[in-house]
Amino acid sequence: MAQRLADRLATARRRGFVGRQDELARFRSSLENEDAPRVVFVHGPGGVGKTALLHQFGWLGERQGRRCVWLDGRELAPVASAVVAALGAQIRGGPDEDEDPLTAIGEVPDLLLLIDTLEALAPLDRWLREELIPRLPDDALAVLSGRERPSLGWRADPGWRELLETMPLDNLGPADGRRMLAARGFPDADSDTALAFTRGHPLALALVADARVQRRSTVAPTTPDVIAALLRSFVDTVPSPDHRAALEACAQVFGLTEPLLAAMLDRSSAAPLFEWLRGLSIIEYGPRGLYPHDLVREVLAAEARWRNPDGHAAVQRRAAAYYRAQFQRAGGAAQQDLLLDFAYLHRDSSVLKPFLGKMGPGGTDADTLQATTATEKDRPILRSWVLAHEGPASADLFDHWTARQPQGFLVVRDEEGAPVGFSLQLAIEEMDDGDRRADPLAAEATAHLNRSGGLSGPETARLVRFWMDRDAYQDISRVQTFITLQFSRAYLSIPFLAWTFLTFRDPDFWADGCGHLDYHRIPSADVEVGGHRYGVYGHDWRSVPPLAWLSRMADREARPPSPPGQPPLERPEFAEAVRTALRDLGRADGLRDSALLRTGLANPANGTDRPAALRDAIHEGAALLETSPRDRRAFRALHHTYLRPAGTQQLAAELLGLPMTTYRRHLAAGIERLTDILWQKELDTRH
What we know:
This protein has about 675 residues and is an alpha/beta fold.
């Protein structure tokens, strides 16, 4: 039944596809000519028809006997392990089921690899370019599709310039636009008007056609945002409030199935509404169910949030309850899909968003930082950082683990591809007695794991043995934040993960941050290496599994900012809270637990939440210091330590050209003056 439905879906897509004859001809040439470029890069704005074109490419490839492998960036965490797992799920299944997917894909004959929504995998741009695509067979053809043109790494490399063909997509011409409208039952007499105000944008044309079906008339929008205006016009004409609720429900979730829709609307059956959604031009159908185009989703979700926040929250809670119930009954692979579904449901949570990325276009620091594997050329560089920050004993351990588990490296690179940070994550189950004798941290982490029941069956446990920013080491920095996000995303996608252990040189400094993420100090794992003391925090994923962890993070969004009856802060408490907030300012969601959230400084404005309002208040107070000549030196110390941190206090002092004693005096003055300004603002809100 599912296969017949898939066949009908493919046929309907081919029947509804219009235009793009030049692009189709160029692709046919690439299929037939082995000397043609082997990577096709389709790019264009949202809603212009990239996904529809890729479906046509896939159909043409299958007709020529190509083995099609389809990846959608919307469905993947932007980490290499998630992409490798998705590849493995599609190309395995024979006697070599345990073969490495990256090795196996290099042996697939007549391969056509299609990767859609590439902007969602932006942090992997370098990995795709240097690791995955070069492993494809010589006769393979890869098609990449995203909103942005190829990055400089593709365009500047002489090799890729020869093997890469770019296909920029624009709006449809008048003739193709008329054909698209006609295919959707739109009267030819009105097509000129529709083409004039949509300018041939395919998604806008689809909205016009759907709106015509609903109300038998078309009015040109008067606002410059054609998509949003058309969509709001369309929503106003749906048959009933139930249909509107179904449309808004579809915008909330990653993929909508009929049982999920029934659960979200609190109905015993939602079959008629589900069939209505399936018939809309603005709704796509994928392996995980129905979903609207990204631009449509953004407008629908925003409208639902402000129009009926209580109803929106209730629908979200029912979806979460449905996912939890399904999770208890699902197997390993299905559970990973449900984790993605649950995370996507809470993608706008200010607590979860930094750890999940946007799960759509881009990701945290996607324009400037990328996560890749380590090359032989990288390792001497990384070792030099370990030697500089931790000393010779740690450098020797770096050598040991490089030989034992080289696959555990993650290298953070800047926009020019230079390494700026790294981590080394070890699989504890792959350690032997020699490893534990060599590294006391490995021994203590293993001992704690064994005291907690050890591992059974396919379970795995990970020890983050090294992690650092090239310059800031383990101080707060954008590289540190990026590494943290990569860890969190990976931990949500590793099957059978039992424990993770994180190593810190200054564990006390990270106590609040680790506690916020439900990582707990393991005092028995404290060790000394090369004269430096290290501490370990751990999370037991068997006690608090990924879905429960996500729930815990999401539930923090709804916590009241101040418990009922709690008295206002007095001046000494307020001053201590300001110092803590400054230390936490550079952390992702570092202000989420700030005592200052109980104050008037955190009163939200312009749709922001309380932590964001508090962050703005701190920056505004600091800006007042900058405008005062007598406070300018204090402001500069504050600025380079907390607002735009140099990395360490030593680096901040060097940047300011000050001895440490003078720098510390200026910093103390800056904190005191900022506290005075914020305290006065707080008093003003109490009157």
